[in-house]
Structures are given as structure tokens and as C-alpha cells.
From TrEMBL:
This is Glyoxylate reductase (NADP(+)). PROSITE patterns: D_2_HYDROXYACID_DH_3 (PS00671). Residues 104-279 form the D-isomer specific 2-hydroxyacid dehydrogenase NAD-binding domain. Keywords: NAD, Oxidoreductase. It holds the Pfam family 2-Hacid_dh_C. Gene3D superfamilies: NAD(P)-binding Rossmann-like Domain. The keyword Oxidoreductase applies. Transmembrane segments: none annotated. It comes from Halopiger xanaduensis (strain DSM 18323 / JCM 14033 / SH-6). It is an enzyme of class 1 (oxidoreductase).
Length: 311
């Protein structure tokens, strides 16, 4: 697809992750004008391309939209396709960042760091029982999703001595995973894991893929982690599993409703770590997004296909 690229808008919604002005300044050397835009439709439609965190209806009037996230479930694919709008995403930049966050969760559970932090708030000196702590080498993590995020998690955890298995559409081997299960064998995959980790995007096929049956199949001493998308998990089933001690605990970065409602029981559970959808946050985020945008500007000029094109 060819079009003239004269003006690129950085939508203010990227403020959720980084200041839009930082990305605009980073892309200042492009042949197109780069400017920060808000929700005014005329301001958006004056752009040929928009870099954004959220969707706006006015995007249907531009030629190219780039999502700063890998997940693109916020965007209406059919409408983009009907309007001839190119949609690209930021797949490929989050793997190591998310992998390190997941390692942090696992180390917190293993070394009881989260309980020490909670005790600190009450100025309470309360050492764990002698057999509460454990080490990661020799444990098994089953990662649901072996794509970019899952592979990043496998790389980091593997370096910590964790045996990493994966669940994907087929059981074909994937580099970095010691064993791979097909989705139809999901229950078998999670049944012997110390940690079950979700890195899946949200699709019609993955919505509520992790349900009560999955939690029942997990070991009682296993921990659950979600850094994919909230609705991949049946949250009520997760809460039931935690309240009944069917699983040992959970580390959650994403939720069915965000922000997580104040009345959610997840806030008050001792063995639950809640983070505000920030597993991939880093000071280099805007640079990594900017590099993809820059590459696609160059590809557009040379007539090459877009990198990370979704629609």
C-alpha cells in the first residue's frame, strides 16, 4: 500500500505508558512532521498516520495506525479493513521486559519478598516459617502462549534454572521450551507445574480459556500468573480457586475490568500480587516503539511491506 506520509500524530493516550512528547521528539528526524494530537477529530484526520494506545473513531479517516502495544483487541479490524486503514503493532519489543517482571513475581513468591513488603507497612518483624521459602531451580513453569511474550518469559526463567513448558495450538517444539503441549492438552500441561503463566493475547478463541477446570487441574501449591490479557481468564473462577486454597497464589498484571475495581477481593488476598498493567513498562519503551515506526516509514518510502502489520 502506498500513500503520502506528511504528518504523523502521537495520540495523547500513549501517556498511559510514556509522555507523548518524548516519542514525538524521538521521531523528529523523520521526513514527516510529527506532532502530539488529542481527541479533536479534525486534529486527528489532519494526520496521515497516528501512533496510539487507544482507539478513536476518527482513525478510520487516516491511512495508518500504529499501536504501542502488541495486543490490538481494542481496534475494530473489520472497520479498518473496510476503510483501507493499515494497522501495525509493537510485537517484539516487550519480550525481555515482561520476562523480567514475571521472574520478579516468581522470586517474590519463592523468597517471600511480597510478605516482607506487606509486613513493612505495619512495622511488623515477622520471619517466614523455615519451610516457606524455596528456590527456583528445579521448578516447572507452564507458559500459555509461546509467541513473543511467552518466549521472553521462557528465556528469562530458563536462565534462573526453571524448566519451562509451553501450551500452543500445536505440540510442535519451540526454541526455549523444554516441552510443548497442544491447546487440547492444556489440562495435562498445567497439572504438574509449579507456576502457570498466561502470555496470550485476547481473541475469540482465548477468551476465558483459563476457567474453573484449569484451576482444578493445577496443583494446590502452584502459583498462577497473568501478563497477557485479563479476559483470557475467568476472574470469578480464579477468585474461587484462591479463596478455596485450590491454588497457592497469583500474580496479576491484567484484569477483566481495568483499573481493578476497589471492591475486588483480589486486593486483600495475602498471596496475590496486583500490579497495574505495567509488566512491560520501562524507560526505553518510547524508543522501542519509535524504532518500529521509523522502520515502517522507511519501508513505506521504499515500497516494502509494513513490519508488524495486523490489518
Amino acid at each position: 500500500m502506498q500513500f503520502e506520509l506528511e504528518r504523523i500524530g502521537v495520540h495523547e493516550s500513549v501517556e498511559t505508558v510514556f509522555p507523548p512528547s518524548e516519542l514525538a521528539a524521538y521521531l523528529d528526524d523523520l521526513p514527516a512532521e510529527v506532532t502530539v494530537v488529542g481527541d479533536d477529530a479534525a486534529e486527528i484526520t489532519a494526520c496521515d498516520a497516528v501512533v496510539t494506545f487507544e482507539h478513536r473513531d476518527a482513525y478510520l479517516e487516516v491511512d495508518w495506525v500504529h499501536s504501542i502495544q502488541a495486543g490490538v483487541d481494542r481496534f475494530p479490524f473489520d472497520e479498518f479493513e473496510a476503510s483501507g486503514v493499515v494497522l501495525t503493532n509493537s510485537t517484539g519489543i516487550h519480550d525481555r521486559w515482561v520476562g523480567e517482571t514475571v521472574a520478579g513475581y516468581l522470586l517474590s513468591f519463592a523468597r517471600r519478598i511480597h510478605t516482607a513488603v506487606a509486613n513493612q507497612q505495619d512495622r511488623r518483624w515477622d520471619q517466614p516459617d523455615w519451610n516457606d521459602g524455596f528456590t527456583l531451580p528445579g521448578t516447572t513453569a507452564c507458559v500459555l502462549g509461546t509467541g513473543t511474550l511467552g518466549s521472553g518469559v521462557a528465556e528469562v526463567l530458563g536462565a534462573l534454572g526453571v524448566r519451562v513448558t509451553g501450551v500452543r495450538r500445536s505440540a510442535e517444539p519451540v526454541p526455549g521450551f523444554d516441552e510443548v503441549y497442544a491447546t487440547e492438552d492444556l489440562l495435562e500441561g498445567v497439572s504438574d507445574a509449579d507456576f502457570v503463566i498466561v502470555t496470550l493475547p485476547l481473541t475469540e478463541q482465548t477468551r476465558h480459556l483459563v476457567d474453573a477446570e484449569v484451576f482444578e487441574a493445577m496443583r494446590e501449591d502452584a502459583y498462577f500468573v497473568n501478563v497477557g490479557r485479563g479476559p483470557v481468564v475467568d476472574e470469578s473462577a480464579l477468585i474461587d480457586a484462591l479463596e478455596s486454597d485450590s491454588i497457592a497464589g497469583a500474580a496479576l498484571d491484567v484484569f477483566e475490568t481495568e483499573p481493578l475495581p476497589e471492591e475486588s477481593p483480589l486486593w486483600d488476598m495475602d498471596e496475590v500480587i496486583v500490579t497495574p498493567h505495567c509488566a512491560a513498562f520501562t524507560e526505553d519503551y518510547f524508543r522501542a516503539v519509535g524504532d518500529i515506526v521509523r522502520e515502517n516509514v522507511e519501508r513505506l518510502e521504499s515500497g516494502e511491506p509494513f513490519h508488524n502489520r495486523v490489518v
